[in-house]
Structure prediction request, 539 residues.
Amino acid sequence: MQQSSGWYRRLASFALLISLSGAGGSGFAQPIDVTAATLEEVNRAFDAGTLTAEQLVSLYLARIAAFDKAGPTLNAVITLNPEALDRARALDAERRSQGPRSRLHGVPVVLKDNLDTGDMPTTAGSSLLRGSRPPDDAFIVQKLRDAGAIVLAKLNMSEFASGGAQSSLGGPMRNPHDLARSPAGSSGGTGIAVAAAYAQLGLGTDTGGSVRMPSTANGIVGLKPTHGLMSRDGVIPLALTFDMAGPMARHVYDVAAALGVMAGVDPADDATRKSEGQAHTDYTQYLDAGALDGARLGIARDFLGQDADVDWIVEASLAAMRDAGATIVDVQLPDWLLDANNALYTTIRHREFRAQIPEYLATLTAGDPATLADLVERATRLTAPTDAGVPNPGRWRLMEREDDSGELSDHEYEAVYAYGLPLIRTIVEGVMDANDLEALVYPTQPRRPTRLDSDPAPTASGGARRPSPIRFANLTGFPDLVVPAGFTGNRLPVGLSFLGRAFSEPQLLALGYAFEQATQARRLPIHTPALAAADSQPN
Prediction:
């Protein structure tokens, strides 16, 4: 972690002490269970005067102390915010004198470490950017702070938002449901932190599934918004054609509340002009427990048949939605599109990272790397674990391929960008239109989370095609909401995706909320139980 381990232990011990006694040592029991409370319930406790932001921050810091570098050692946190408790006290005073700024006033949030924070390092999980301090906050981070949210921690991630669930700065991450399993990437730290209740909500980024895969792997709610609904300013780029930050939380309500704070036009990001007249400041108004009644949903069966337990959960989910009044229609995508989607994605993704990462690096201080080639060269100097980091050969080999991928002027890139992406949008939207569907549904990940000790996949292709649905939301720019659907026989989470048309977030959140209320499938991970004395409501 960025701060010293001694400082971390002192802060965590202090947080645990005041969480056990109540802030200020008053000795009263806590009024909510932070592992289960929705943001709505947190605000009711704030309004009743039975909870303060200082207490809430302390409760979450106690859980980080218990589970992240101790206990199951989930390794989700890179940097704790040393000013979090002071900020909480100031926001408590402001609430008493002026009232709350928003639903997020005094609420702790955690951020993937590729989102700029002017007061804390932003590293993309890379030892190559160790200690790097951006000039200011990302636009959406500033909007969270303006709403009164407290940035509690910066989180581990797949390095530069790609590759396995590990980084050269933060090391490997572990799934709180099964420590031998991957939390998925690239927003793995956010997935872990939200599932383990390190904060009320978190932010990840999604270029090729990186909000949605950790959401399903860790059993939480996650949204990849419509491209352009949220600003990308201050987000370390992977490929701006696809990049979108997205909220992750334990409840659909919390995701909806966070989205309303962050959505909208940013003059510094031209893509957000698409959201003018489409963004809303309050998405919670669309939540409707009866939204499935009369809804028409398409099940994309192309993505079943890869894991019998996942398939069983999907079928049970479809039955629950039918019971709630939904009509379920079988749909199919063209075989050629299933075969080609990864190649089309990579054609854009690799070239854009090579072209766009220097623009971000140019905003940093002198002495930081300036190009992707600089990053590749510096990576060769770390071949054994040191205090500066641990080798991450898998990601660094991918950097070499990205650096050799070509230019944005290449005909392959231009063809996919100008013709391939509109074609995919037309096909996917056409399937929905032809069947009069409100959304497509499918297992977010057709297979359960992978084992951490699995050997790398062979580099040679072969065997039966195993299509994945995860990149269609990126290739189309459409929104995809993941909601917990159930568990496999060995207690691993399964998530269900709701993919809609551009700027259909109100409809998706309504459907997801109705599904969540009907199934109540989320469970606290077995390796991060409630801290009995600290964060459980007394009987």
In short: The longest strand covers residues 480-487. The chain has one domain: 5-343+413-449+468-535. The CA atoms of residues 298 and 329 lie 5 Å apart.
